[in-house]
Every structure is written in C-alpha cells, then in structure tokens.
TrEMBL record:
Keyword Nuclease on entry: yes
Organism lineage: Bacteria, Bacillati, Actinomycetota, Actinomycetes, Kitasatosporales
Pfam families, sorted: VRR_NUC (PF08774)
UniProt superkingdom: Bacteria
The protein's name: VRR-NUC domain-containing protein
Keywords assigned: Hydrolase, Nuclease
Keyword check for Endoplasmic reticulum: no
Known cofactor(s): Mg(2+)
Annotated VRR-NUC domain residues: 32-119
Species, as recorded: Streptomyces vastus
Length: 148
C-alpha cells in the first residue's frame, strides 16, 4: 500500500468538488442530522458510525458510567493512520455540562489533547474533524473553564 501525500489528497478533493460540487454538501447528504429531539445516546451512536467510516478504528465508551468516577468524556476515538486521539462529550442541543465534566474537558484540552463537546447541531464540525478535512477538534468558544 502506498502513502498518499497531502498534495495528492488536496488535488483529489479539488477534482471531486469540481465534478460533484461542495464536499461539505456531499458529506451532509451522506450523514443526515439526527432528528430533532433525539437523545444523547442516539447522537453518540451516529457519530461513532461516522468515525468508523473515516477510519477511526479505536473507539472507547464506558458502557455503565454509574460505577465510574464522574466527568470522564463519553467517547475516546483513536485514528492510527493520523496518530490522533480525540475525547468527546456528547450532549443534546439543550444538554448541560456538569462541573466534573467541565473540569476533565478543560484539563485534557490544556494537556494538548483534541477535545470536543458535540451536539446534533454540530454535525458539520463533526464531519470536518473526523473526515478528510482533518480539522483539529476544539472546545466551543463559549466553554467556561473551571476556576482553580
């Protein structure tokens, strides 16, 4: 198997978009938004499926967090080829981040990891992070870091 250079990948994306239109639009059609009112678990499963399609083979989710220490993110994704690790907290569009979750997310981000809080309305961002654009995940701009 041969490695594809970034220049080759960029050319491929350009040719695809010239022939088929906006890649973002194609991706949005391929992965429809979770129905309004869907729960956090349904949203998490959809993102997990998207991640698998893009080669994020390493996926970890604590099945029963009631016996775990509070605050750990819902999902950890690993992409072997990109050497990336991503920590994600899933919320509904109206869900709130608990203090222990806020503390863990802020700590992981400050330690240099890719960390995100994803809601169904964030599907375009999810596709940019997990897909070929390889955008680096980040906490939302309005994320309030805990006070020390």
């Amino acid at each position: 198997m041969t490695a594809v250079s970034e220049a080759d990948e960029e050319l491929y994306r350009k040719l695809l978009s010239e022939r088929y239109g906006s890649l973002e639009q194609l991706e949005a059609e391929r992965f429809p938004v979770v129905a309004a009112g869907a729960g956090e678990e349904q949203w998490r499963r959809q993102v997990r499926e998207i991640a698998a399609r893009y080669g994020w083979r390493l996926q970890y989710h604590t099945a029963d967090s009631r016996r775990s220490d509070p605050g750990w993110p819902d999902e950890v994704f690993g992409h072997l080829g990109q050497r990336r690790t991503l920590f994600v907290e899933f919320k509904t569009d109206t869900g709130r981040i608990r203090p222990a979750q806020r503390e863990w997310l802020a700590h992981l981000a400050a330690s240099g990891f890719e960390v995100a809080v994803w809601r169904p309305r964030d599907l375009p961002t999810v596709l940019e992070v997990l897909g070929p654009a390889r955008q680096r995940a980040a906490l939302p701009p309005n994320f309030r870091r805990p006070t020390p």
